[in-house]
Design brief:
Bound molecules: flavin-adenine dinucleotide
Helix content: 25-40%
Number of strands: 14
Shape: globular
Largest sheet: 5 strands, antiparallel
Radius of gyration: 19 Å
Oligomer: single chain
Order of helices and strands: EHEEEEHHHHHHEEEEEEEEEHHH
Length: 276
């Protein structure tokens, strides 16, 4: 195993350009969990980003919250303004693993790990987050809702690092995050939902019910048009167009479909006129 230790962001980008097969490492909470069993991974070159301290803080601009490549869940939890303006980020962060993982795991790592059951990604996607990708000398911005191409496939080239995640500030009058798991901590989602209503309309984002975390356009349209929803089952036709849940060791497709309808219905009931 060989590890590169850049001391700054620009140095990290330069090192990656010279070693494009190197694996970026932020908190290491996803990468190292398989370490004992994936022996082939031991022979790779890793790019340890932790020395680029300027990449840890989150910052606020007039129009966005900007998360750095090393911003952790805990950095967001402890920012009082994040709790006021982006409550779904805090709600999601509080449900990632337990406090040790929240203190080490990063939002960028959550995005690039590309788990369909991720908790950070749905909250970011419901806020129209944009992924900033940089390589030596070039920058590209990709909206998170089009970042994934399929299971563990994404619009990131081997010489690119996520150098920021921009979360646009906007007035949103409905904000809902729900994670259904076996217990409150240290559980992988059986179904995850992040929902917002903002100036551009509804965002309904689902996790653990498709090969990637994804927006649900049929549900968004149903809500945008104010169609009356009188019971959870009224949501099922749209759910069936939007997601493709499977049976796996954590749950069944039938359970996921039924629970998604119920969580969404009960989460919106009382907040939205059309859902009664
Ligand atoms: C016990 C345990 C519980 C967990 N519970 C949850 C949970 O409840 N919910 C959840 O969503 N996740 C959970 N996770 C998964 C993990 O903690 C998160 O996905 C975390 O956000 C990963 O961040 P990291 O910084 O540790 O990523 P790393 O492990 O460092 O990296 C993850 C991936 O991202 C890539 N990467 C990292 N940073 C960059 C960058 N800047 N640019 C390009 N590529 C990059 C790496 O190469 C790797 O492919 C858990 C993990 C463990 C071990």
């Amino acid at each position: 195993m060989s590890v590169l230790f850049p001391a700054s962001g620009p140095e990290a980008l330069a090192m990656l350009a010279d070693a494009p097969g190197a694996v970026p490492m932020a908190g290491g909470t996803d990468l190292l969990v398989h370490w004992p069993v994936r022996v082939a991974e031991h022979d790779r070159t890793y790019l340890d980003l932790s020395g680029a301290r300027e990449w840890q803080p989150l910052r606020w601009s007039d129009d966005a919250l900007v998360l750095g490549p090393l911003t952790t869940y805990w950095d967001v939890i402890r920012d009082p303004r994040a709790g006021r303006e982006f409550p779904l980020l805090v709600a999601a962060a509080r449900q990632v693993g337990a406090v040790q993982i929240q203190a080490r795991g990063t939002w960028a790592g959550n995005i690039v790990n590309a788990s369909p059951a991720a908790d950070g990604v749905p909250a970011l996607m419901a806020y129209d987050a944009v992924v900033v990708l940089e390589s030596r000398g070039a920058t590209e911005e990709v909206p998170l809702d089009v970042f994934y191409l399929g299971y563990k496939q994404m619009r990131r080239l081997p010489d690119q690092l996520v150098t920021a995640i921009r979360v646009p500030r906007a007035a949103r009058d409905v904000q809902l995050f729900e994670k259904v798991g076996s217990r409150r901590a240290q559980a992988i989602a059986k179904v995850g939902l992040a929902v917002t209503r903002g100036p551009a309309g509804w965002r309904v984002v689902a996790a653990s019910v498709a090969p990637t975390v994804r927006r649900c356009p049929a549900l968004e349209q149903l809500l945008d048009t104010g169609t009356r929803v009188a019971a959870p089952d009224d949501l099922l036709p749209a759910i069936d167009r939007d997601v493709t849940p499977i049976d796996d060791l954590r749950s069944t497709a039938a359970y996921r479909r039924a629970v998604m309808a119920r969580v969404l219905y009960h989460g919106l009931r009382g907040q939205v006129d059309a859902v009664r």
